[in-house]
Amino acid sequence: MKNYKFIIRGKVQGVSYRKNVSQNSSKENFNGFVKNLSDGSVEACVACNESDLSRFVEILEKGSPESIVKKIERFSHDETFNSGFEIKY
């Protein structure tokens, strides 16, 4: 299992993006979190097998009906997650 960090850019704040990502990630049993950043982007971190990574990216791309995802950047991450998926404030 690896840990990943994503920065999502576009219309992703104030449009229920975090709520939808959190709910859909929880349904898929991913562990991690999603939070707004001060520059208007969203950070999402997840612990998953590489084989499941494309499913998580699909959740990020889908977002919410009102969101518009323009760019997703992926990074390796050292923090581990094993207690479900949550929204951080």
CATH class: Alpha Beta
**Count of helical stretches:** 2
| Distance between the ends | 26 Å
Q: Give the name of the CATH architecture.
A: 2-Layer Sandwich
**Computed CA radius of gyration, to the nearest angstrom:** 12 Å
What structural class results from the helix and strand content? alpha+beta
Strand order in the largest sheet: 4-1-3-2-5
Helical amount: 10-25%
The overall number of domains is 1
CATH topology: Alpha-Beta Plaits
| Percentage of residues in DSSP E strands | 35-45%
Annotation, overall tally of beta strands: 5
Can you tell me about this structure?
The protein has 89 residues and is α+β, with helices and mostly antiparallel strands. The protein has one domain: Alpha-Beta Plaits, CATH 3.30.70.100. The protein contains two helices and five strands, in the order βαββαββ. It has helices at 17-27, 53-62, and strands spanning 2-11, 31-36, 42-48, 68-76, 85-88. Strands 4-1-3-2-5 form a five-stranded mixed beta sheet, with helices on one face. α1 (17-27) packs antiparallel against α2 (53-62). The longest helix has 11 residues, at 17-27. It is globular and about 30 Å long. The relative contact order is 0.37. The mean pLDDT is 95.
